[in-house]
Task: structure prediction
Amino acid sequence: SSVVTVYLIRALRLLPSHLFATMGVASKYEEYSKKEVQFIETELKDWFLQRRFAMERNMALKKTLDDNNFTGLSMANAAVPDAQKVMWSDLVQGKPEIDDSLSTNAKQMKAEMYTKMFKDATDLDHPCRIPGSGYLRCLQENFKEKSQARQMKCLPSFDTFDACRKGIMQQQAQALENALIKQDIADRRARALFERRSILLDTQSSK
Result:
């Protein structure tokens, strides 16, 4: 065995020095590749868990709101009664108004329904609470008036309320767009990481 050892030592001495350097680089690259795969897999796991958690949270919130007869600015809850859906649409994007064809009692009742629905949907800190309440108060105080006369009296307060509503809608649209952009960036990054992982695993398996 001592003779074999001597021959091995002599054989190794005959090998070019750059071969040892190459073997060292290859070994380091393999070690680096394994660590990079581990890092990528951790990142992909975090991405998946975040997406899964966000999906489950949003679905749970939507179900809770639907079960309790809530609807948002998009009016996506099909379970909301048609009459309430129409009034809600008037409040968020149309114009709360009282038809001249209604009786006096019906006019008063409709104005009160608009006010109650609006106050139930907005807290005291809501930016549109004051301008909205101002217009609906004008509507209530002038429910006996003809439509044209009432509109002339309440137009300034409605314009203020409408401007506030449009601002809220714009904020929501911008927030949605930003969230979608952020989600798209995260998804593209995850895709790039997954492709990088596949390349590294193919390289390791080919050795």
Summary: The helical segments are 2-14, 17-67, 82-92, 104-121, 129-141, 147-205. The chain has six helices and no strands. The radius of gyration is 34 Å. Residues 54 and 205 are 36 Å apart (CA to CA).
